[in-house]
Amino acid sequence: MPVAHPPEGTTGHGQSVDTYVVSAGRPERVPDAPLNTPIAPASSFIAGGPMEYARYDSPTSHALEDVIGGLEGGLATVFASGMAAANAAMDLVPMGAVVVAPSAAYTGVAVRLRELEEIGRIQLRIVEVDDTTAVVAACKGAAMLWIESPTNPMLQVADLPTCIAAAHTNGALVLVDNTFATPILQQPITDGADIVMHSVTKALSGHSDLLLGALVSTDPELAERIRTRRVLLGALPSAFDCYLALRGIRTLAVRIEKAQDNAQSITDLLAEHPAVSRVRYPGFGTMAAIEIAQGSDAADAVCENTDIWTYATSLGGVESLLERRRRWPLESASVPENLIRLSFGIENAGDLWSDLKQALDLVLR
Ligand SMILES: *Cc1c(COP(=O)(O)O)cnc(C)c1O
């Protein structure tokens, strides 16, 4: 079975990141070539080349993989969603292997890991990722350390270099889900991570109009194993979605800068509001969470009474979203009932604050 090569030229880019997101993944500069990589809606390719069949490789996904791989400093394989990428990564450990994972990882990931434990496929060791001593201890005898930093939705930050080194001492693979920080703010491969995962659905594509995932690895052999997972699981994104993601990623650097400015200024104001008992914000990034002093009903009321902020799940888009996470029955019980996750968009900071403030003021009445 032909397993397509990982994309070439993706191990580090040597350009400023804001230049790179604009210039990478473009067609070769020859007269009349289009500026943008075309959407290539083809399941099959003329025999004899490296692509052959779209589950292996295709021109539009290849261009997106070049960009994401370059951003993270490795070889990227894109998947139909973040969860498809996660499942492919979970496939990489042997039967019965010990997997160390965060107490409140992304809900889908946490639930899937628990399912795999229930059927005896893996043994789970749950840790608080910000408790470095506990993570280091849990790595003993582990085959994989699965980490989010910051975590979704608790915004816990891990000491990545220390945790990754402890995992490697034990011969464990390290996967870092970098969806929240994005490669603009954090590149886990430089801290030693073996695999970086993305829900490209979120900030990388940035417009809440598609689902897509990615795994990135520096090790060509591991990248090939990941690619084989996609070939065999078949969870690949459409050429159209790859095109949309490529288009979205062009503005990644400016979107993150603006959304992070909004997050930094508004979380400071939120900390002073009497309806807010706790602000979780690690000081960087576009995601935060607040806890509402008056409880979970009041938290629902805040979500339902904003005009600019939209009450919806997901994150990382140009529009600001908020959501009480425990409305999902499967969300981890370690997430407080009154916690609202905030995904900062790129609207005007003053508008975002006055909208949130009037909704918070309502619960004080
Ligand atoms: C959304 C998300 C996922 C899952 O990605 P999908 O694209 O929704 O399948 C995984 N990890 C994190 C941190 C997420 O936010």
Describe the structure in your own words.
This protein is of the alpha/beta class. It folds into 2 domains: 233 residues, Aspartate Aminotransferase, domain 2, CATH 3.40.640; 111 residues, Aspartate Aminotransferase, domain 1, CATH 3.90.1150. Helices cover 36% and strands 16% of the residues. The chain has 12 helices and 12 strands. α3 runs parallel beside α4, α5 runs parallel beside α6 and α11 packs across α12. The structure holds pyridoxal-5'-phosphate.
List keywords for this structure.
365 residues; alpha/beta; Aspartate Aminotransferase, domain 2; Aspartate Aminotransferase, domain 1; 7-stranded mixed β-sheet; 12 helices; globular; binds pyridoxal-5'-phosphate
The major beta sheet can be summarized as:
7 strands, mixed
Number of helices: 12
CATH third-level topology of the largest domain: Aspartate Aminotransferase, domain 2
Radius of gyration computed on alpha carbons: 21 Å
Distance between the termini: 66 Å
Q: State the helical fraction.
A: 25-40%
Portion of residues in beta strands equals 15-25%
Across the major sheet, the strand order is 1-7-6-5-4-2-3
Structural class: alpha/beta
What is the residue-mean pLDDT, rounded to a whole number? 95
What is the chain-wise order of helices and strands? HHEHEHEHEHEHEEHHHEEHEEEH
Number of DSSP strand runs = 12
Shape: globular
Bound molecules: pyridoxal-5'-phosphate
CATH superfamily of the largest domain: Type I PLP-dependent aspartate aminotransferase-like (Major domain)
Total domain units:
2
Q: What is the level 1 CATH name of the largest domain?
A: Alpha Beta
CATH architecture of the largest domain: 3-Layer(aba) Sandwich
